[in-house]
Specification:
It is a single chain. The chain is an all-alpha fold. The protein contains 25 helices and no strands. The longest helix is centred in the middle third of the chain and has 24 residues, at 229-252. The protein is elongated and about 95 Å long.
Length: 491
């Protein structure tokens, strides 16, 4: 039997636990390290990994048992009994029943097999081992403990048979009831997702990307565990929205291939969650990615598909705007204007956005699309009017939307032969800090500078100044910073 080293002092254990937690290690990682370093029994290592005393552990087991008693009733544990359970199968120990082992595992937040080693298994009765064998069953076999155990020969007889049957039923009930996430945790996940969708519009985008990725990883880790079906659906929805956010951000960083990957994963999550609003937003995101990738027909297809799921919120407005944007880029003026009209109709019957922020299309955002579409379809005067009214009357949406609208307004001024008006309109855009210069903005700036170079005012002072400022603006931008960094933001 393994004996733990006397160097396992409380100070040493606490120091190790705090160091590993600060390094991002899990409780399971800490338990493994303690077992390896101080040769602890698995149950003792898990207790110390949590930083609990024997009495604190006993109290937790007793409290847990009073709420969810086993087939033999509630367990009244004390420090001495917990200590004996930890030492088993050594001297002065006591073998815990399977019900007790399951309770200990639930209190520690781990699986039963995590608190058993080979020595424990050698000392367990054959009937108990049969019940535990479901944990090691191949993926093709049933995951249910009872389904797995019934495939084994019926060894016990008499009272032992009755006891084993009760243990099997208790084990199955606990397995079926177990969830690694609660309703309050799910509410918090969605609240955090809403915060990220809002913060992206106004804060440093790379910092928000990092936070979004971290939250997505938490949701993915939870999905690897066990939940009730409705909880799993909620987790898939959260994962879908988070991957959708990462997809949108990745395209704003100029990383279209990575954005497409995030978009496909978001769609899978929407399907697994059977969530129509999420489906609509994912298709809107994929339409946006296709647009900036030059795949206008794909952008139109995604936008049209999304309308079938747009039963609530403002996503229907955005989808119609995105279709209009793609048609106008193709030079199809009548189709673009028809899509703009549908966006106005959708605006009149819009509902509440459950995530909002980036996943919303208020009037300011619709006006931005309308300005660009009107400009491309040969109506610069109305484009200027649309932009001026929105900038004067509508609540602020995001620095990215505002900048794109101002660039479109400047392009309209240029088309009307007013280079001074274009230069004046662009001043706030060119003053954007580098961390807010996203790909849609830098690309629009380049397009405007190229258009001015080809215009009849190409030799004017405003045109020459814009060429120089546009080049400098794009050199210090988020896409360029990411392209020049040793890593990638597309994880």
């Amino acid at each position: 039997m393994a004996h733990h080293s006397k160097s396992s002092s409380k100070a040493a254990r606490d120091s190790l636990r705090h160091e590993m937690l600060a390094a991002g290690c899990t409780t399971a990682d800490i338990a493994v390290e303690m077992r390896a370093r101080w040769r602890m029994r698995p149950r003792e290592a898990w207790r110390h990994a949590h930083g609990w005393t024997l009495q604190e552990t006993a109290d937790r087991i007793s409290d847990h048992s009073s709420v969810r008693p086993g087939p033999s009733g509630a367990v009244a544990a004390d420090a001495s009994l917990v200590g004996k359970w930890e030492k088993w199968p050594g001297p002065s120990s006591r073998r815990p029943s399977l019900t007790v082992l399951l309770m200990i595992a639930e209190v520690f937040g781990c699986q039963v097999e995590d608190i058993l080693d080979l020595e424990d298994r050698r000392s367990l009765p054959e009937s108990d081992l049969r019940i535990l064998q479901h944990a090691a069953a191949p993926a093709s076999e049933p995951a249910s403990p009872v389904a797995a155990s019934t495939a084994q020969p019926a060894v016990p007889e008499g009272p032992e048979l009755v006891r084993v049957a009760a243990e099997e039923s208790a084990m199955w009930a606990r397995w079926a009831e177990t969830s690694n996430v609660g309703d309050l945790a799910l509410e918090q996940l969605m609240a955090d997702t809403r915060t990220l969708a809002r913060d992206y519009l106004i804060q440093d985008p790379t910092a928000v990307f990092t936070r979004t990725r971290a939250l997505r990883d938490q949701v993915f880790a939870l999905l690897e565990g066990r939940q009730y079906p409705r909880q799993a659906a909620d987790l898939y929805a959260a994962a879908g929205y988070l991957c959708g956010l990462l997809a949108w951000m990745s395209s704003d960083f100029g990383r279209l291939q990575e954005a497409d990957t995030q978009g496909r994963t978001a769609w899978l999550c929407a399907e697994l969650a059977d969530h129509n609003e999420l489906r609509a937003w994912v298709l809107s995101t994929r339409s946006k990615i296709a647009f900036w990738d030059g795949r206008m027909k794909d952008a139109i297809t995604h936008a049209r598909r999304g309308v079938a799921y747009a039963n609530d919120g403002t996503v229907g407005v955005l989808l119609a705007c995105q279709e209009a944007d793609a048609w106008s880029q193709l030079g199809a003026a009548s189709e673009a204007r028809a899509a703009l009209a549908r966006a106005s109709d959708a605006r009149d019957r819009q509902g509440v956005d459950h995530i909002a922020g980036l996943f919303s299309c208020p009037e300011f955002r619709r006006a931005n699309y309308a300005t660009a579409v009107l400009l491309r379809t040969g109506d610069p005067a109305h484009a200027v009017q649309e932009a001026q009214q929105a900038l004067a009357d509508q609540p602020f949406h995001s620095y990215g939307t505002r900048s794109q609208m101002q660039i479109a307004q400047a392009s309209a001024y240029l088309a009307l032969g007013e280079p001074e008006g274009a230069a004046e309109t662009l001043r706030p855009v060119l003053a954007l800090p580098p961390e807010q210069r996203l790909e849609p903005v830098t690309r629009r700036i380049r397009e405007l500078a190229d258009a001015m170079a080809r215009s009849r005012v190409a030799n004017s002072a405003p045109a020459a100044a814009l060429q120089s400022e546009a080049e400098e603006f794009c050199m210090e931008s988020v896409p360029r910073r990411i392209a020049l960094s040793p890593g990638t933001a597309g994880a």
